Known about the structure:
Two copies of one chain form a homodimer.
Chain A (H helix, E strand, L loop, with lengths): L7 E2 L5 H8 L3 H7 L1 E5 L1 H9 L4 E6 L7 H12 L4 E4 L1 H7 L8 E6 L15 E6 L4 H13 L5 E4 L8 H7 L8 E4 L1 H11 L2 E5 L5 E2 L9 E5 L8 H5 L3 E4 L11 H18 L1
Parallel strand pairs in A: 1-4, 3-4, 6-7, 6-11, 7-8, 9-11, 9-12, 10-12
Antiparallel strand pairs in A: 2-5, 3-5
Amino acid sequence: MHENKSPLVDNLHDRRFTTLLSLQNPHTRSHTGLYLIEGIRHVARAVEHGARIQSVFTDPSRLTNPFGQKLARRLRKSGLPGVRLSPLLYRDLTLAADPQGIGAVVQQQWATLSSLKPARNGLWLGVESIESPGNLGTIIRTAEATGVNGIFMLGSDLDPHDPACVRASMGSLFSQMLMRCTHQEFREWARSGGVVTVASSPTGLVDYKSLRYRWPTVLLVGNEKRGLSEQSLEISDYLVRIPMCGRCDSINVAVATGVLLFEMEYQRRNN
Amino acid sequence: MHENKSPLVDNLHDRRFTTLLSLQNPHTRSHTGLYLIEGIRHVARAVEHGARIQSVFTDPSRLTNPFGQKLARRLRKSGLPGVRLSPLLYRDLTLAADPQGIGAVVQQQWATLSSLKPARNGLWLGVESIESPGNLGTIIRTAEATGVNGIFMLGSDLDPHDPACVRASMGSLFSQMLMRCTHQEFREWARSGGVVTVASSPTGLVDYKSLRYRWPTVLLVGNEKRGLSEQSLEISDYLVRIPMCGRCDSINVAVATGVLLFEMEYQRRNN
């Protein structure tokens, strides 16, 4: 069976390793349109959702889980290129506290606004300048759980393929439609499709619970410290706020997004 | 005015510095009952809530914000012991990407169960085995925003004074009543006070929205991967679940806690 094994790479300077490592860099990700995933759950969900996997890397010494081993065999048999990495090199590729011994290079998938038809009863999310990739990944995970139809990345500074974001998304990245666009493009898409834009803001006048989300809706959320930009607030139809107790003026942006999306999804399901 | 300045410490081996640094260690925190906070917002909120500040440390080269400088002067004038640290030493004390030049040593405050009277209409939170200190801090921040009366730390493995937890709590730690207890003690407190225990679980039979939270209620949330222990599920009166779309089986624990607490708080405010 040895002839079926992927080649072993244990040299720090091997091009097959340095190519993988270079995908930790945002510029290389942007330039190549590729990104890294790691862990059995992530790779399995990528396969399940038909993500465009380019190659696979494993560390057989860590890949002790039978389901993970089966997954690795299945991917090898499918003809995907793969390498086996030494434990030290594998370790360098992942942020995980407990690496699972299987990872992959995946092609980024971006949808265009013109391909996106605003469905009746649709729910979308728009994110702007989220600073922590962990927060962005948690938001993408919540978007899947609430049946969001697609996520707009407003502006050019958000990188949903950052390793910490990919990790926090727990595999939800593969099932989501992602669109990168300017505020102007977003505005035109929403207006032309009759989609109502709801912005989350501590200065919002409307309690999020008092609004009836009867129309196709897109929720906009912004930066952890600064909130949404003036530009985003201007293109919004409603500014909603989550009422807070005591002297508390804010909550974590991923928690706020969750509270709002679950309310919108509940109303959609029950109205 | 020089006689009023705190002593400058720039030697890595200075006891005043090593004592501060030792509080990054969970055993030292547990042994001394002290912990570190950093940043203008954190120190200001500690003062505001009457937290027991033991000493202050500053890095004058970073403390450029006028409000922060005023805060440092006010604390020095109040007679609190303080040191000025060299930029390099200060940097070692904080996890912040952008340290603000003022921090403090604060005494932990733990409430006892016997001192905690279950109020009519009360809302509490119980947490068990949360692995990520960032998640725990985000949960504590959400608890303040939803007016939670106090947080039970079930078991001995949770450390709300971990620097990453303190940081994510954004100052909410000082306004919260924290209780450390066993499951048995918690159960007795809830039963004797007529407090209903609601556990969050993906296997829960009750949709969290369908329950009417009419009674004094405590919400229990558990570990990121394993959820709540058998022991916690057994002492719970209701197991509620957050319904999810598609094939999604879970969301981040801090997001789930936020969704549940904001629903409970809303019902409390409107029923």
